[in-house]
Amino acid sequence: MTTPLLPQQIAPVDDRQSELTRRYLTGDHKALFGYFMALRAETDRHLASALPAVGGKPYPYGRCEEITRDLFARLAQRLQRPDCAVEQGLRAFADAGGILRSVWGVLRDQYFQNALQLGGLYVDVSNDTVVVTKPKIEILPIDACGLVPVRDLDHFRRTAQAYWGAELYANHLVPTLAPLLPILSVSPGKLAPGLQSACDYMIALMRLDRFRQAEAWLAEGPPPPEALTASFLAGVPADLHPLTGQRREEALLVCRRAQAAGCWGDDGWRNARVLDYLRLLREAGHR
Question: 144: exposed, middle or buried (C-beta count within 10 Å: 0-12, 13-18, 19+)?
Answer without folding.
Answer: exposed
